[in-house]
Amino acid sequence: MIDVIAVGETMAAVAPTTAEPLETATAFSVATAGAESNLAQWLADWGHTVAWVSRVGDDPLGRRVTQTLAKNGVDTSHVGVDSTAPTGVMFKNPGVESTTVHYYRKNSAAALMGPEMVESVPWGKVRLLYLSGITPALSKSCAQLVQRLFDRAKREGVPVSFDVNYRPGLWSVENAAEVLLNYARQASYTFVGLDEAQTLWPWIETARDVRELMGEAATVIVKDGAVGATEFDGMGSTFAPASVVEVVEVVGAGDAFAAGWLSALLEGGQAPERLARGHQFAARALSSTDDFQALEISSTEERGGRH
Annotated catalytic residue: which of 75, 82, 163, 255? Predict the structure, then answer.
């Protein structure tokens, strides 16, 4: 069995090696970036079996992305290679107040994915399917793929975890709000930041407002930055304060939180344990410029339930 299959685009991520703007930086590093593969790497590092389903270009960056994920324990055997489209690229631009991100992913190999990709998922082996709101923003065919995945997962009896992950650089609130809400309401587990919920649906004020808006979603996890996170399920709600951490960069922390929460869920943990591990993973992401930060722990006991 595969614990989690994550479907979505991963790009090559170029960033200055020091915290200075792209305009003046002279040295750069190349890593990987993608909400779904970030989560996959966090889960694999903890010891879960994870596969990533996507497409990359038949180019050096596509091979680099695939090899990096495989090296970090992610099953990449379900990744397609497109000889006619490139692998997407993103650039991080560090600033005094925050880091901005610049995408070069239009018509990338992953953006050209469509409903046919649903057959790339080994349905008889998967315990959980993970999707994010980034994928439907890439193209109409990607949006069709996401809905087809929800439909197929329902028929197969596979629970779906969906992270709203609104990216204003990819689409407007007017185009995204209804679409993302529709997906969120279909999920078994929905992750959303309170700030992005307030951006998408301006009448939202509190985490409970988000819960009520999600309607049919079985479990909703509302993240409120440095304050903490609240989990709503059929039994009520549970709040856990965020870890105190010196923030280096916030990019990727939401993916890490979702990975920690799902890891504890897969191991049978209850709400307090799920939220605690979510904060644990997020703290590691916040303390690094990398979206994924491998655990520097080798013993099974210290990992607290690692498979």
Answer: 255
Query: Following CA atoms 167, 25, 281, 42 in sequence, which dihedral angle do they give, to the nearest 10 degrees?
Result: 80
The number of angstroms, rounded, from the C-alpha of 254 to the middle of its chain's C-alpha atoms is 7
Which structural domain range is residue 149 located in? 2-11+35-87+107-286
Write down the residue that tokens 């339930």 correspond to: 305
Report yes or no on 19 lying in a domain: no
CATH number at residue 251: 3.40.1190.20
Number of H helices, E strands in the chain: 9, 14
Please list, in sequence order, all residues whose beta carbon lies within 8 angstroms of the beta carbon of residue 187, skipping any fewer than 6 positions away: 131, 150, 160, 161, 162, 217, 218
* Number of C-beta neighbours around residue 188 at 10 A: 17
Examine residue 302 and state whether it is found in any structural domain, yes or no: no
pLDDT in tens, the chain (307 residues): 999 999 999 999 999 988 889 999 999 999 999 999 999 999 999 999 999 999 999 999 999 999 999 999 999 999 999 999 999 999 988 876 777 889 999 999 999 999 999 999 999 999 999 999 999 999 999 999 999 999 999 999 999 999 999 999 899 999 999 999 999 999 999 999 999 999 999 999 999 999 999 986 689 999 998 899 999 997 789 999 987 666 655 566 789 999 999 999 999 999 999 999 999 888 886 655 566 666 654 333 344 444 4
* Distance of alpha carbon 82 from alpha carbon 89, whole angstroms: 15
pTM of the model: 0.91
Q: Would you say residue 303 lies in a domain? A: no
> How many distinct structural domains can be found in the chain?
1
Cα gap 56→84, rounded to integer Å: 10
Whether 92 is covered by a domain: the verdict is: no
Active site includes 45?
no
